[in-house]
Amino acid sequence: xxxxxxxxxxxxxxxxxxxxxxxxxxxxxxxxxxxxxxxxxxxxxxxxxxxxxxxxxxxxxxxxxxxxxxxxxxxxxxxxxxxxxxxxxxxxxxxxxxxxxxxxxxxxxxxxxxxxxx
Amino acid sequence: xxxxxxxxxxxxxxxxxxxxxxxxxxxxxxxxxxxxxxxxxxxxxxxxxxxxxxxxxxxxxxxxxxxxxxxxxxxxxxxxxxxxxxxxxxxxxxxxxxxxxxxxxxxxx
Lengths: 118, 109
What we know:
The complex is a heterodimer. Chain A is mainly β. Chain A contains no helices and 11 strands. Chain A has strands spanning about 5, 10-15, 20-25, 30-40, 45-50, 55-60, 65-75, 75-80, 90-95, 105-110, 115. The termini of chain A are far apart. In chain B, strands 2, 4, 5, 9, 10 and 11 form a 6-stranded mixed sheet that branches. Chain B has a 5-stranded antiparallel sheet with strand order 1-3-8-7-6, with no helix packed on it. By secondary structure, chain B is an all-beta fold. Classes of the chains: A mainly beta, B mainly beta. The interface of A and B includes residues 46, 91 and 107 of A.
């Protein structure tokens, strides 16, 4: 099956610093990747849709200047949390969609990155 | 009304029980219906997907979709402690992908 990796799996940083999270599709090319955040015991909240070679599309209420997304290749998307604050502490999960002739396009999820901002 | 609703649980059952997990939705344009399982501190993994109405069975898991009632279900037979996780329903129409809030399930040995 399709594998999506994330790095790092967890990170602790000081308030005010920036943190970069990588999402890679290991055995397929993903023209579209998604970034979610998940607070404890809550569901996934879509933050943005990342399309290779173009600007990301952000969901309402998500600050694009704070959460920078770059999808520079068909296998890599990065999320940079700039000037992180304790309220940004969360579980960040990416997913990648396999483009296919079928209209059913499954999402494969990465293992997530737990960010703790002190 | 939220687009997708799901009983958050937690739901606790004894080992071997039949589990029924359910979601309701409001958007009649949804055509693809998925169930994901998420273990604590892990990313979701796809369990089942169904197109339009009907049933689909895979081992101990059965997914059921009733588009006329805008209601989907996941049944787990002979539940095991390893089934303890959060189960998320998801559905899509075209490009719009929506998750339910998830149901926490605990299967007690």
